[in-house]
Amino acid sequence: MFAIGLGLPISPLLASRMGASWVDIGLMGSAWGVVFTFSAFLTGRISDRIGRRPLLTISAALSALAALLFLRASSVPDLIAIRGLEGLAWACFWPPMEALATESAETEQVGRGIGLVTSIYALAFATGSSAGGFIAGFFGFAFAFAAYLGIAFLATLSVGLIERPRQVGTPKPLAGILESRLFSRTTLMGNVLAASYTFGLASIMTLLSVYAASFGIPVLWIGVAFSMFWAGRILGGAFAGGASDRFGRKGVALLSLIVGCTGFLAVGLAADLLFLVTGVLLAGLSVGAIFPVNVAIIADDTEPELRGSAMGFYEMTCGIAFMAASTLGGLVAEVVSPGSPFGLSAVVFVSCAIALSVLLPERPRGSFTLPEQSLP
Question: 181-362, which class in CATH?
Answer without folding.
Answer: mainly alpha
